[in-house]
Amino acid sequence: GFEQIARGRVAAVLITTSAADAAAAATAGAADGTPRVALAVAGLPSGKSVLQLNAERILRLQRLAATSTFGKNAPVSRQIHWYIMTSPATHDKLSATVKSHGYYGLNPNQVHIFECKTAPPAFAGEPLKALTLGSATLSRGVPGSGEVFATLKRSGALGHMKRSGVRHVEINAVDDNILARSADPMFIGFCIDSGLDGAAKVVEPQSVAPVYAAVMSGSSAAAAEGEEAAAASDLEENIGFLAPAIGSYYFSFAALNKAATYYDTNPLAMYRMVPNAKLPSKAPAPAMTVNLPPNATQAQRMQAQQAIMAAQHAAAAAPAKPVEGYVPTRVISDIFCAQGAVMI
Q: What is the pLDDT of residues 11-69, one digit of tens each?
C-alpha cells in the first residue's frame, strides 16, 4: 500500500452530499446548511472537522509512504489525489470552506471538488405520489453514495485519475465518520496482494449476531447433519448481504471505470426505495377567490386582489414540513450484490 501511494497510484474519494440539520449546525456554531463534513466534531478537543481530519491524514500518509518506500527524509514526490463529491446543497459552501482553510495544507492541485447534480425526487402516500415544495418544485432527497460512479465519469474526475496514473481508489461514503482512514495503505495493500478488483470494509460478524442467527435458524444441536450443511450453505451464499459495510470501499481503476460506464449508460440501474422520515414537503398555494357583488367598485376589486396575493405569498413563504416518505436511492454496496449485472 505504501509503495503504491509513494508512486502516485492511489486516489481517495470522499462523498459529502449531506448538509447539517439546523440543530447540529447551531450546536457547532455554524451557519444553517453547512456541510455535515465541515462541522467541528462535538467533544473533540482540537475542534477539527471530519473534513480537516481527512486532509491531515492524507498529508501525513504521503510522508509515511515516501519514507517507507524511498528511505528516511525522502521528500514527497507524488501526491494522493483527493476527490470530494458534493451535492447542490453542499457544493458552494464546501468549496468555500476548503479554500478559506488553505486546503488544510494540501496542494490545491491535488484537491478536486466535483458536484453530483442528481437529486432524486421524494415520494409519499398510498399509492406513492411525488412530494412538492410548492406549485412547480419537487421535493428532493440527498443523492445516495451509488451516484459516485456515474458522477466521477460525467464530471471528468475519472478521466483525471487516468491521466494522473491512478490505479487504486478508496471511496469513503460516510462523511461524519471520524475514524475513517482515507487511502488506508493496509486495506489497499491487502486488496492488491489478493488480486481484488473491489472490496468493502465490514464490521465484525459478532456485531450482527442476530442476523446470522436468523440465517442459521435451521440448525440446532439436535439438527440432522444434512440440515446443518444446508444452513451453512445458505449463510455462505448470503454473506455478501449479511456482513454490513461501513462505508469504505476499494476499487481498482479498471473496475471503477467499468462500473462508472455501466451506471452512466443505465441511469435507472439499481435504484431502490429507501424510507426517510424527514422529507421536506409543502402543498402548492391554494387557488383563492373573493365573491364580490356585481356593482363592486374598482377600489374594492383591487383590494380583494391584493388580499388574495398576500394570502398566496404567505402560503408560499411558509416553511416546509417534514413528512415520512421514500427516496429512490442507490448505494455503493449494492454493486457487490449484483447478480451478474456488471461489474467486478
A: 999 998 887 766 666 666 666 678 888 888 888 888 888 899 999 999 999 999 999 98
Q: What is the mean pLDDT of residues 196-224?
A: 59
Q: What is the pTM of this model?
A: 0.77
Grid cell 478537543 — which residue?
Answer: 45
**Set of cell numbers at residue 241:** 448481504
Residue 268 C-alpha cell reads as 435507472
- Per-residue pLDDT at 264 exceeds 50: yes
| Model confidence band, residue 340 (pLDDT cutoffs 50, 70, 90) | very low
User: Beta strand 81-86 with 111-115: parallel, antiparallel or unpaired?
Assistant: parallel
Identify whether the C-beta of residue 120 lies closer than 8 Å to the C-beta of residue 143. Answer: yes
The phi and psi torsions of 166 (rounded to 5 degrees) equal -70, 135
For residue 1, what is its C-alpha cell? 500500500
Q: CA nearest 195: which of 143, 255, 147, 267?
A: 255
pLDDT of residue 282: 56
